[in-house]
UniProtKB/TrEMBL annotation:
UniProt keyword Transport, yes or no: yes
Domain of life: Eukaryota
Family the entry assigns: Belongs to the V-ATPase D subunit family.
Record keywords, A-Z: Ion transport, Transport
Matching InterPro entries: V_ATPase_D (IPR002699)
NCBIfam families assigned: V_ATPase_subD
GO CC list: proton-transporting V-type ATPase complex; vacuolar membrane
TM ranges: none
Gene3D superfamilies for the chain: 1.10.287.3240
Taxonomic source organism: Setaria italica (Foxtail millet)
Protein name: V-type proton ATPase subunit D
Keyword Ion transport: yes
Entry GO MF terms: proton-transporting ATPase activity, rotational mechanism
Length: 269
């Protein structure tokens, strides 16, 4: 993966180690939340898909029924009913209202249909729909109107479902990209950085321990050297004193001391 062998360029300190651990905790929590969001959106996505399939199946039957009802109205009332309807209608009675529904932080557009009471009752601009086809074929015209209103309702529902479907599809893709980025790039990179900082801190600790051991060894050798120098100086002093006492050379007195011919009480004045 992209982040398996990568790490952040940071200074390996204890403070930075704490920062990286906090980032890892935040990335883990964010990954869990985004995963839950993706699951919730997927469940809603599948539910909407089932509704779309059912709506499309019913739409075929509804559109077929509305087409047959229109043919029946034309057959009974004649082709002139079309001109009567066009002249009497000035405003739509079935209208569409849009609103938004929040699903796991994603705003889905929803469309709902409603009937305008003023237009449906034949207000100032429309003629009363009950008067259309009064001469003949009024029942078929009313049935045709009801069938087309039903078709409009199905179309509005299908448009709402498809719009929500596309919005959810895009939201799921975006969420899954973020989940994959956190799982395969961000978290491994932070973990590699933490491992690098820990390794560097351990190496610094080993270097400090080795440095202390070297300093202790140097101090020990220095103490031993000072003791050896002090012992050598004391022996030289003893040899000089013995040489003065015996009237011999310093070298001979040193040989006597090395050979053990003289004791300590013999050279004490």
């Amino acid at each position: 993966m992209a982040g398996q062998n990568q790490r952040l360029n940071v200074v390996p300190t204890v403070t930075m180690l704490g920062v990286m651990k906090a980032r890892l905790v935040g990335a883990t929590r964010g990954h869990a939340l985004l995963k839950k969001k993706s699951d919730a959106l997927t469940v809603q996505f599948r539910a909407i898909l089932k509704k779309i399939v059912a709506a499309k199946e019913s739409m075929g039957e509804t559109m077929r029924a509305s087409s047959f009802s229109l043919a029946e109205a034309k057959y009974v009332a004649g082709d002139g009913v079309r001109h009567v309807v066009l002249q009497s209608v000035r405003a739509a009675s079935v209208r569409v209202r849009s609103h938004q529904e929040n699903v796991a932080g994603v705003k889905l557009p929803k469309f709902t249909h409603f009937v305008d009471p003023a237009a449906a009752s034949g207000g100032p601009s429309n003629a009363s729909p009950s008067l259309t086809g009064l001469a003949r074929g009024g029942q078929q015209v009313a049935a045709c109107r009801a069938a087309h209103v039903k078709a409009i309702e199905v179309l509005v529902e299908l448009a709402s479902l498809q719009t929500s479907f596309l919005t959810l599809d895009e939201a799921i893709k975006t969420t899954n990209r973020r989940v994959n980025a956190l799982e395969n790039v961000v978290k491994p990179r932070i973990e590699n950085t933490i491992s690098y900082i820990k390794g560097e801190l351990d190496e610094l600790e080993r270097e400090d321990f080795f440095r202390l051991k070297k300093i202790q060894g140097y101090k020990k050798r220095e103490i031993e050297r000072q003791r050896a120098n002090a012992k050598l100086f004391a022996e030289e002093q003893l040899a000089e004193d013995l040489a003065l006492k015996r009237g011999i050379s310093v070298g001979a007195a040193a040989n006597l001391l090395v050979a053990g011919g003289e004791k300590d009480d013999d050279i004490i004045f």
